[in-house]
Amino acid sequence: MSRRSGILEFAVLGLLREAPMHGYELRKRLNTSLGVFRAFSYGSLYPCLKTLVQQGWIAEEHASDAVEPLTAQLTGRRAKIVYRITAEGKERFEELLAQTGPDTWEDEHFGVRFAFFGQTTRDVRMRVLEGRRSRLEERLDKMRASLNRTRERLDDYTLELQRHGMESVEREVRWLNELIESERAGRDQRDRRNGRDLKDATGRRDEAGDRRTEDTGGLPRHRGSTRPDPSEDTT
Questions:
Q1: Basic and acidic residues composition bias: which ranges (predicted)?
Q2: SS3 state of residue 41
C-alpha cells in the first residue's frame, strides 16, 4: 500500500468514526476538512472504500432515505450506500492513531494526523510534533545552504521565490514551537495540580493521624468511653 493510499485509509476511518457517511459526504469532508485531499477524486476514494470493506474495517448499509425499488426502476436512481466503521475498524484506527514514526512527520501525513490530534494522547502528540519540527529544521538547513551556494547565480525573482519558501518553513517551525510549549505547559500544570492534590491528601491523612495520636495515644477510641486510667486498675 502506497503512502498516499495509507493516509487516505487513516482519514476515512477517522471520519467514519465520527459518524456514518455516504461517499459524497466523505469526499466533501476530505476536501474541506483535510485539504491535502483536494486533488482526490471518486476514482481514488471508492477503491479505498472497497478495500476497507473487504478488510472488515467498514460496512456498507442502505441509507434510511433510500428510494423504493419500484421508484428506482422507473427513475434509474439507486439507493445511497452509507458507510459505517466496524469494531475492527475502530481498533485499526486506534493502531494507526498511535503511530509516531517518520511517515507521520511528512507534509501530507502530518496535516491529516494533526486534524485528529484531539483523539490522541499527549505523548503521541509530542512525538509527532517534535518529529515534524526536526524534519523541518533539517529542510531549513538544506535550503539555507543551497541559497548561499547559488545566490549569485540566481535572478531576483528566483531568489525571492526561494526566500518565500524559507519563510514559510520558518513560520511553521515557530508554530510548532508554540504547540510544543503549549503541550509541555499543559503537562506541567497537570503535574503541579496532581502534586497539590497529593500533598493535600497527605496533609489530611497526617492531620487525621495527629488527632488520633493526641486523643487516643495512637489506639482507637472505644465509642462512648474514655481512656482507662491506670490508677483505677484493681487487678
A1: 185-215
A2: coil
Arithmetic mean of pLDDT, 133-148: 95
Q: Are 93 and 113 in contact (CB under 8 A)?
A: no
- Tens digits of residue pLDDT in 118-133: 999 999 999 999 999 9
State how far the Cα of 174 lies from the Cα of 182, in Å rounded to an integer. Answer: 12
pLDDT at residue number 80? 81
CA dihedral 112→114→116→120, nearest 10 degrees, is 130
- Cβ-proximal residues to 72 (8 Å cutoff; 6+ apart), any chain: 78, 79
Residue 105 has phi, psi (to 5 degrees) of: -95, -15
39-43, 108-112, 195-199 — which one is most confidently predicted on average? 108-112
Query: From CA 218, how far away is CA 205, in angstroms rounded?
Result: 14
Say if strands 81-85 and 21-22 run parallel, antiparallel, or are unpaired: antiparallel
Give Cβ neighbours of residue 61 (< 8 Å, ≥ 6 apart): 20, 81, 82, 83, 84
pLDDT computed for residue 78 by the predictor: 59
Average pLDDT of span 105-123: 91
Q: Residue 82 belongs to what H/E stretch?
A: strand 81-85
- The pLDDT of residue 58 is 97
- The three cell numbers locating residue 28: 466533501
Q: Which residues of 14-28 are buried (b: 16+ CB within 10 A; e: fewer)?
A: bbbbeebbeeeebbe
The single residue listed with the C-alpha cell 496532581 is 194
Mean pLDDT for the chain?
A: 79
